[in-house]
Amino acid sequence: KDEFLAVLSHELRSPLNPILGWAKLLQTRQFDQSATKRALETIERNAKLQTQLIDDLLDVSRILRGKMILDISPVDLVNVIDGALETVRLAAEAKGIEIQTVIAGEVGLISGDAGRLQQIVWNLLSNAVKFTPNGGHIEVRLSSVHKINYAQIQVKDTGKGITPEFLPYVFDYFRQEDGTTTRKFGGLGLGLAIVRYLTELHGGTVKAESPGEGLGATFTVLFPLSTNAGRTALDGMTSLVSAAEPFPLAKTRILVVDDDPDMRELIFMTLDQAGAQIQLASSAFEALDILEAFQPDLFISDIGMPEKDGYELLRQIRNSSSAGCREIPAIALTAYAGELNQQRALAAGFQKHLTKPVEPEELVQAIVSLVRA
């Protein structure tokens, strides 16, 4: 237990060093445009790494308690792979690793949870990037295995490979080939265990192959193709926010409640850039004072706040004497990320539950989907 906590502390602290270091340098020194861009990319990459470590821990907790829930719909694996590739792009570019994608014809759709499927591919790609040396090569191949009516995703790298002794344990929880303090590669040893669990939850299989140490590795995932999900189910799906629409929230009045001043400023800048009219509140009490005079079209609230939390605040708004206030669409924007937290937020009357950190585009998209509904 002590050893695991020591490793966990190390892995959570490691991304903070480049984040805080570059942030301090950007505040105190002048850099040219190229160096500034590199600094910001480093901060973003390490922040995403820390977020993923936390998400992995939460996912393992859900898995061990049998609380993992899938949101099933027809899924195009091409889109899943594209999304996962975008997530690892910065990390691959930082090491000069080339990622080649091969789509072997029309594969078809599978029934699954798009977010969890992307998590599977992301973990495989992230693993490949981590263990592939600078200037290496990764290939992602999507194909169909017609004999068994399965879709197949392969991630092949030119990395350090896997020894025959460790290969049987590569998908075990908290297992790493090198667990010493002198190890070259970080991580908690959770990513591949999560890959196996999520793959099997989708009725699929995953296997790892490697000729040996220093000879790279290939991970192969098989998912059953859907027999009743036609492509038309996806063809009609388009983004509510068009790239040609610079101010998708123009004339939209939004009340934002969060006790963290940095978070309030970030949300304000995000929504202001999208054309919204915003009122900020630092507490539930301040939000209630603003509410009737401002008459917002939408309400965004943190959950964990001093004295009165987001649930109690929404309860008071829903019980307001003003009909307009009672029916305001509401988004919970919170660091409470579990599925039970999401269910509680929806049961409390929030229309959407978004987890911090949230991508600006995701927040705007969520607002648009509610105000245009």
TrEMBL record:
<feature type="domain" description="Histidine kinase">
    <location>
        <begin position="7"/>
        <end position="227"/>
    </location>
</feature>
<comment type="similarity">
    <text>In the N-terminal section; belongs to the phytochrome family.</text>
</comment>
<keyword id="KW-0902">Two-component regulatory system</keyword>
<dbReference type="InterPro" id="IPR005467">
    <property type="entry name" value="His_kinase_dom"/>
</dbReference>
<dbReference type="Pfam" id="PF00072">
    <property type="entry name" value="Response_reg"/>
</dbReference>
<keyword id="KW-0418">Kinase</keyword>
<dbReference type="InterPro" id="IPR003661">
    <property type="entry name" value="HisK_dim/P_dom"/>
</dbReference>
<protein>
    <recommendedName>
        <fullName>Circadian input-output histidine kinase CikA</fullName>
        <ecNumber>2.7.13.3</ecNumber>
    </recommendedName>
</protein>
<dbReference type="InterPro" id="IPR004358">
    <property type="entry name" value="Sig_transdc_His_kin-like_C"/>
</dbReference>
<dbReference type="GO" id="GO:0000155">
    <property type="term" value="F:phosphorelay sensor kinase activity"/>
</dbReference>
<dbReference type="InterPro" id="IPR001789">
    <property type="entry name" value="Sig_transdc_resp-reg_receiver"/>
</dbReference>
<dbReference type="Pfam" id="PF00512">
    <property type="entry name" value="HisKA"/>
</dbReference>
<dbReference type="InterPro" id="IPR036890">
    <property type="entry name" value="HATPase_C_sf"/>
</dbReference>
<keyword id="KW-0597">Phosphoprotein</keyword>
<feature type="domain" description="Response regulatory">
    <location>
        <begin position="253"/>
        <end position="371"/>
    </location>
</feature>
<feature type="modified residue" description="4-aspartylphosphate">
    <location>
        <position position="302"/>
    </location>
</feature>
<dbReference type="Pfam" id="PF02518">
    <property type="entry name" value="HATPase_c"/>
</dbReference>
<dbReference type="InterPro" id="IPR036097">
    <property type="entry name" value="HisK_dim/P_sf"/>
</dbReference>
<dbReference type="InterPro" id="IPR011006">
    <property type="entry name" value="CheY-like_superfamily"/>
</dbReference>
<dbReference type="InterPro" id="IPR003594">
    <property type="entry name" value="HATPase_dom"/>
</dbReference>
<keyword id="KW-0808">Transferase</keyword>
